Amino acid sequence: MQQPNRLRPFFENITFDRADNEMILNFGPQHPSAHGQLRLMLHLQQEQITKAYPDIGYLHRGMEKMAENMIYNEFMPTTDRMDYIASSSNNYGFALAVERLIGLEVPRRAKVIRMMLLETNRLMSHLFWLATTALDIGAMTVFLFAFREREYLMDLIEDYCGARLTHSAVRIGGVPLDLPDNFIPDLRKFLDKLPENIKDYEDLLDSNRIWLMRMENVGVISTEMALSWGCSGIMLRASGVEWDIRKEEPYELYDEVEFNVPVSDKGDNYARYKLYMAEMRESAKILYQVLDMYAGTQPALMAHAPQYISAPKLDIMTQNYSLMQHFVLVTQGMRPPVGEVYIPTESPKGELGYYINSQGGAYPYRLKLRAPSFWHTGILTDLLPGHYIPDVVSIIGTTNIVFGEVDR
Amino acid sequence: MRAYTPKDNVQKKPYYTDRYWVAPQVAKHNVSSDDVFAADLEAIKAKFEVLEAYIQVDQMVVIINAADNFGVIEMLKNELSYNQLSEMSAIDWLASEGKFEIFYQMLSMTKRKRLRIKCKIDEKESIQSVEKLFRSADWSEREMYDMFGVVVNNHPFMKRILMPDDWEGFPLRKTYPLQGDEFAAWYEVDKIFGKEAREIIGPENRDSARIDRYDTERFARLGHEVPRGTDISNGEPDTPLVYQETEGVFMIEKFDAEKSVVISDRDR
Questions:
Q1: A81 is a domain residue
Q2: CATH T-level assignment (fold) for domain B31-153
Q3: Confidence at residue A7, expressed as pLDDT on a 0 to 100 scale
Q4: Which of A1, A53, B114, B135 stands the most exposed, by the fewest C-beta atoms within 10 Å?
């Protein structure tokens, strides 16, 4: 207990306990390397952590509640605000869940465009991860390099949908727009240069003494722990479990493209870092294959299901019945059949799932967002004890948590 | 007369539903159509009572008694190799049947199968924690308690997780309004300024689309424009719309009703 006087002011963030020399340190919620609004209560013995309590909820907006009060199409822009580093993957997860609920088949060109969006988003997210984690550990150059490449991708997405961060670039039943003319050549130009860029990052980091000290054998997650905590994505694959939803339960065109799933059995920060690098290369490989698929597709972009999806603009402007249906779909919303569905997708952060319980109404009766970062934050409770204060930042970094997604 | 709104479900409802409209159903398939699921279901049935089981959108749904939840999930984990609990939460059916429905979304990586265990409990009933089996349930169960008020037994740290600790009410219940209740409107005022400041500050506006008829700081009424910040609680003057600047526009004369002449002689 503190007894403040004029010489010894009250320390707001620190509590000293004389009896057992334990200190309680409040990390966040405004810490620059907390990657958002994470508050950690750390019990310390000297510099070693004995207990850790992550405290979340500073960014809670009640998205599940909002979803219950919105028609399905209205909810799409809200999903952008979950993982705002790669928002198209959130849009896609929601669109896919509703499509499976209805039983819609999406035109092939829309699938190809969605694949391009998903993989560019994965690259953007991984580049952002690399930049911020390297910056937290003190590698400013990598931050600038990675942001330069990410900027290029953001411009590319801006050319497609007009937005840089909150894309809303996927619709239930397809995609809203065709690719602009410059998209494919620009993306190809970027991909041609990407291996060189990744090599630059690796040259700077791979054998960097400071980087290795904070990465090697730090934050080791065992296979049992990763499975028990519901880890997914790279957090799981770095711990020796070969599980990538794109490969195991393929959706979209992932069963038509060839790519590898990088796995490591080390489970430490360094393994996760290497997997991010390897995944960027795999994404590039997928994108090359998808770029070639585009040319042979028919121009349709939205599924044909008049009961759920508005007709193309031309039909709405020329045919009375299409106009009437469009009016009903916009004002009242589509009404998917009664039933429930849980659809997982492999977002850049891990398994992003949407559970939708529809009672046949225009509003979902219950919508549960399964965001991977939620459990990747929870695991800090078990992961941090035993580590030292400087490792906290690097462990938070490699868990790649985004608080829009944790708090929803 | 005010329009009737049901108090047990205050969520948004469609303003019009065709009276002949019948909602279609997502197909439920027999479990025997899938060998892996059929074997799993047999194993569960041997030890526990299964109320209903079917396959919907490629995933098996098994409905069990709430008392068996720990046993069934333990069996799924240890004997049937469902090695991850990817998600769990509740659904509020209080309005229609006075019950909560709890669902556990399980994943088996070796079998590449997902199944959902569901059970129902009464409003005041509590459920057994599965945190001993899957650590991921630690946070999920806290979130479920936070959002629905479903108490979980044998949980190591049963506390709110997303909402503040001293929050009242459970946000995801259907009786809880989207914009929050009375408590929510005063929460921050009380917390930051104290209860004595309630009269000065007033309740928090939690509806971002609300328009205040007497607020001249942020809103202006067409045809009734007044200087910003004027008090108009006792009515405001009519401001006729004037489309020309006071000084007039070059080459264009302002219309003056006094000076103008009405021409009655058509031949002139």
A1: yes
A2: Beta Polymerase; domain 2 (3.30.460)
A3: 67
A4: A1
